[in-house]
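Support request from a user on the community tier.

User writes: "When I paste my structure tokens into the form, the page sometimes reloads and wipes my input. The last time it worked, I copied everything first. Here is what I submitted, just in case something in the input itself triggers the reload:"
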């Protein structure tokens, strides 16, 4: 092996090692994750904030008594909070169980 081949092989190996380090380092930034500090759980409600846009965060509220998901967004410029969506979790999970063809837990059809 000549000195040039040895240098090229060393550079190529270094590039692969640095590329691997870069992928491992950037892996956490590629996905959106929720940390325990962003979630508050009470007996009746669960609150979670998450980034939903570049300059926007939304508040997700789960009403554990009525099985509803409320999604709220704050509009800082107008100094108000908007309700974006209110969804029945019973209906969402019944629909997803039927769509998958295998509902878990319930055997009767949910109407």
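"...and here is what came back when it finally went through:"
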């Amino acid at each position: 092996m000549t000195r040039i081949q040895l240098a090229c092989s060393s550079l190529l190996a270094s590039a692969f090692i640095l590329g691997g380090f870069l992928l491992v380092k950037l892996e956490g930034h590629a996905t959106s994750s929720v940390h325990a500090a962003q979630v508050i759980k009470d007996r009746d409600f669960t609150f979670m904030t998450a980034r939903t846009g570049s300059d926007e965060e939304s508040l997700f509220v789960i009403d554990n008594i009525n099985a509803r998901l409320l999604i709220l967004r704050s509009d800082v410029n107008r100094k108000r909070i908007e309700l974006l969506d209110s969804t029945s979790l019973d209906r969402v999970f019944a629909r997803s169980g039927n769509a998958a063809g295998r509902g878990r837990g319930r055997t009767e059809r949910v109407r």
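Agent notes: The reload is a front-end session timeout and is unrelated to the input. Residues 32-111 form one domain. Residues 103-111 have pLDDT under 50 and may be disordered. Escalated to web team.
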